[in-house]
Structures are given as structure tokens and as C-alpha cells.
Amino acid sequence: MDTTDTLPPPEPTRLRARRQADGRTALRLLAAHPMETGQRIDADGRRVPAWIIQTLTLRLRGRTVLRWHCGTAVAQNPYLELTLRDAQVGDTIEVDWVDSLGRRRSDRTTVA
């Protein structure tokens, strides 16, 4: 049996995109993920295996605007805050991530 079979499905990535008065769009992103470093020891004295988001991709209107390669130094439930210059109200922003167990999550929001 695959270890991913016993895990709950990944929670939705929380996204909020708001157009600001200066014409830029503020994007906030929260990815629910434990981000285990592989260095923690559990109650039984065994090392907890590494389990991290490896790559996070952000697309605006289908065009990749960010590709983030995460490492073990990233905290649990990574939070990103970005400013986009050419996002317009109604545009679609999509985020996809893949973790070290091969699990994937895709979510989208619309610029408000």
C-alpha cells in the first residue's frame, strides 16, 4: 500500500486577490501543508520522514508568473504575499503545487 493512501486529501489553498487603488493587485496565498523537514523525532524515537511542497506554480490568465522551488527551511502552511502589476479585475489566478510524496493540489481565484 502506498503511504499517500492513508493521508487525508490536501486542503484547498486559500487565495485572495484584490485590485488596489494604485493599479496593482495584492495576492495572498496560504497552502495547508505540514512541511516536515525530515529532522524531527517522533514520540517513539523515530525520525519523521521529510514531506515538503517541492514546487509551487502561480499562473495569471494561464501564463506562469511564479515558480517557487521550496526547501526544508519553509515553515508549515506556507504563506506568500505578492503584488502583481498587470492583473485586472475578473482575471483568473491559478496555483498548483506538488509535494515530495507526489501529492498535488490545484486551486484558483478571480481578481476582485
UniProtKB/TrEMBL annotation:
Domain Sulphur oxidation protein SoxZ, residue spans:
18-109
Region Disordered: what ranges?
A: 1-20
Alphabetical list of SUPFAM superfamilies matching this protein: E set domains (SSF81296)
The family database entries (NCBIfam families) matched by this protein are listed as: SoxZ_true
Highest taxon in the source lineage: Bacteria
Give the signal sequence positions.
none
The protein's name: Thiosulfate oxidation carrier complex protein SoxZ
Tell me the organism.
Pseudaquabacterium rugosum
**InterPro entries given in the database record:** Ig-like_fold, Ig_E-set, SoxZ, SoxZ_dom
